[in-house]
Amino acid sequence: MDILYLMILCSVSLAAVFLVVFIVYARKGQFEDDESPAVRILFDNEEIKETEDLSSNDSEKKKGDSNKFEEKSE
Fold first, then answer.
1. Which NCBIfam families match (predicted)?
2. Structural domain of 11
3. Following DSSP, what letter does each residue of 3-69 receive, concatenated?
């Protein structure tokens, strides 16, 4: 029966910790923007392509494992 009291105490304290963390992050504005992630997939990738083009013009690409696929596809 003592273990039951211990488990209840642990679960209530864990729930209190999660509640405090939730309140702190809610006040910081973590949960303010809940619409844009849902519609982000509907946008075109033109912005991403433009930033990749700008970064390739600014500096030369290093020859590494991540660029092997790009070399073959071009």
1. ccoS (TIGR00847)
2. 2-56
3. HHHHHHHHHHHHHHHHHHHHHHHHHHTTTS--SHHHHGGGS-SHHHHHHHHHHHHHSPPP-SGGGHH
- For the segment 55-66, what is each residue's pLDDT rounded down to a tens digit? 666 555 555 555
Q: Which residues, other chains included, contact 25 with Cβ-Cβ below 8 Å and sequence gap of 6+? A: 31
Q: Is 33 inside a domain boundary?
A: yes
The answer to whether position 51 is within a domain reads yes
The Cα–Cα gap between 30 and 24 comes to 9
How many degrees, rounded to 5, is the angle at CA 21 between CA 19 and CA 5? 45
The answer to whether residue 48 is domain-embedded is: yes
Q: Could you give the CA distance from residue 24 to residue 53 in angstroms, rounded to a whole number?
A: 40
Global pTM value: 0.46
* Residue 29, in any domain of the structure: yes
